[in-house]
Amino acid sequence: MQFLVLFVCYCFVYLCLTESRQFIFIAKGFKAGIRVNLFSLALDSELVQNHPDYCIQELPGTRSGRRRPRRHTAQNGSKPATIHLPDTGKEVALLDVSHPEVRARIREQIKHMVSDCGYSLINVDFTAYTTGLTNASHNLRWHDDSLTAVQLYRLAVELLRDTINEVRSEN
After folding, report:
1. What backbone torsions phi and psi does residue 165 show, to the nearest 5 degrees?
2. Do residues 48 and 42 lie in contact, with contact meaning Cβ atoms separated by under 8 Å?
3. Of 25, 118, 144, 160, which shows the fewest CB atoms inside 10 Å?
4. What is the pLDDT of residue 146?
């Protein structure tokens, strides 16, 4: 097992940059992959601090057991909705995919991963997003208030699908 892990790491180290600015593996048959969490951000990230409206908002006074106030407050008194990630022990803010600027940013990130970095496989982690939307959707508010929590989730999935299909057609 250790040999396989070392071999995979070895292959990822030996990426080379071609003239077409795309990465290829030296070892024939391998594809570059990445695991990302596109729909949540660290609470102290620059984007959350500068644009709290890009996050799904928790309505004021909905967490009764919380003792310390959160500092990232939007103009209307609501705060970015957060979820605790058990694997990292961190609390993250959930991005609002119904916000047009958030969709544009996510689209740019996907295009960058595929076109500029050369990733063929993208594993998107929806755990935080799914958990956050299903656990407290009645206490949350997002940009397009005509959408339900399930519709918001579907919008995120459709955004990924459509962007990846767009990048494929360009290449």
Report:
1. -65, -35
2. yes
3. 144
4. 94
Runs of H (alpha helix) within 2-148: 2-13, 46-50, 100-111, 127-136
Reported as type and span, the H/E element at residue 149 is helix 149-170
pLDDT at 28 (0 to 100): 60
Question: How far apart are the C-alpha atoms of 57 and 59, rounded to whole Å?
Answer: 6
- Of 166, 41, 47, which is closest to residue 114 (Cα–Cα)? 166
- Answer whether 163's CB lies under 8 Å from 113's CB: no
Q: What pLDDT score does 147 carry? A: 92
Please report the pLDDT score of residue 108 as a whole number: 94
DSSP 62-112: --TT--SPPS---TTS-EE-EEEETTTTEEEEEB-TTSHHHHHHHHHHHHI
Q: Are 107 and 159 in contact (CB under 8 A)?
A: yes
Contact predicate 81/74, CB 8 Å: no
Q: 37, 79 in Cβ contact below 8 A?
A: no
**Per-block mean pLDDT, blocks of 10 residues, the chain (171 long):** 35 36 51 86 90 89 48 59 82 93 94 86 84 75 91 93 88 72
The tokens describing 111, both together, are: 């295009």
Instruction: Give percent helix, percent strand, percent coil of the chain, each to the nearest 5.
Output: 40, 20, 40
The pTM is what? 0.71
